[in-house]
Amino acid sequence: MPKEPDATFEKTTVVVTATAAEDDEAELARMGYRQELRRELSLLQNFGMSFTIISVITGIPSLFLYGLNTGGPAVMVWGWIVVACATMPVGLAMAEICSAHPTSGGPYYWAAMLSNPERAPFTSWITGWFNLLGQVAVTTGISFACANFLSTVIQFGTSFVSTPKSTIGIYAAVLISQGLINTFGVHLLKYLNNVSIWWHTLGTTSVVIAVLAAAPKHQSAGFVFRTFIDGTGINGNEGWGTRASHAYVCVIGMLMAQYTMTGYDASAHMTEETQNAAVAGSVGIVTAIGCSAVLGWFLILGLLFSIQDLETTINSPTGEPVAQIFLDTVGEKGAIVLMVIVIGAMYFCGTFSVTSNSRMMFAFARDGGIPGHKFFRQVDVKRGTPIRTVWLACFLSFLLALPSLGSSVAFSAATSITTIGFYISYGIPIALRVIYRRRFTRGPFHLGSFSMPVAIGAVLWIAFISIVFILPQANVRVFMS
């Protein structure tokens, strides 16, 4: 597990002095590691990693049906604002710690440095495994959603009928291609990152403008901002039913927003490949959350105002409400174009999720945190990338999707696992920052007097959602006759 920083660490060839401390490699040496990965990313590209993995045009369409059934438009619109406002303090608290410890390990390394030294190894190990769980689950959720949308668009104008087995096959092909890009195209990742930023920004804007402009009619503001739907019942049951339970539905309905607003620790995991990492990693986290919050709300509003018939949208024969909105507004050919935009964003998102995932696993293996760590800690010298953890990430993500062959709720479970795993791993170092405040030496990015209130608010929110998203998401009561 991570060791206490040592300025005379023997494994590195960099001599750490007061004047050299600003240098990225010297800072990495101070934390006990030598430079093994290629440090080629700029602040924009570091931001792009988190922005791409948050990917509002991936998360929102993926869980749009869940959102419509679990609270409906009102919860989707207002829940997004609540989650965005609550997520920003989490991001700010993480950014402050990232600035002090800019390493690929991210949360698990922070936990080791901020914990009581006697408990540091165990605390770091627990944090690392929660983060790894979130990393694997988010790659599963993203790339499986990409496979689902590919299955849907293939059916447009063809006789192809999607089945769970065909979707799993497409999913495997998606993961393999993303693994190959992260293996042989690593030198292209920074350029793909730039493309992804524009694809997400312009693509999301184009989708919203297209459906709003082409929609034969628009829903009223009352429908979008005030309509509440409790469609959580399954097996013929109604929803939770009572007025008191509406609050419960509103709370669990925020999963769509909170699942989307995850993965911004990618900026931390990429710091060993980022120039001026102590600042760029922190700014990347905060700006990715802010930009995604605005763009995501814009997308939700555009889609909700463009719904033509709510019942048809929810029970769409395509299985995807967003695809039905596209069909109802721009027709089949136009829908194919918009679906390509969404699928492209999902593919970029999944590709860079594998990148972030592999860096976290590499760092964790480097510190002996996973089985087979001596094998997985190796970096390909020619390409300067941890190829073995790239394929470990793809393999584990594929395994996590296999339950979808026999369960219709597997994707929903993956989103909950993602959210809980990520946020517990975020919350542990932030909580330690509050408890052992004297162990924290701030970096160039800091919150000053706001540091402690922001951190406390972040911990409270994480504790809340970690409980909420374990709770049942559907009413499966069985009535005795």
From TrEMBL:
A GO MF term: transmembrane transporter activity
Source organism, top-level taxon: Eukaryota
Keyword Cell membrane: no
Transmembrane segments: 47-68, 75-95, 132-156, 168-189, 195-215, 277-307, 335-354, 390-411, 417-436, 448-471
Gene Ontology, cellular component aspect: membrane
Subcellular location: Membrane
GO terms (BP aspect): amino acid transport
InterPro entries, sorted: AA/rel_permease1 (IPR002293), Amino_acid_permease_CS (IPR004840)
Keyword tags: Membrane, Transmembrane, Transmembrane helix, Transport
Main location (coarse class): membrane
Membrane topology (UniProt): Multi-pass membrane protein
Name of the protein this chain belongs to: Amino acid permease/ SLC12A domain-containing protein
Organism the protein comes from: Scleroderma citrinum Foug A
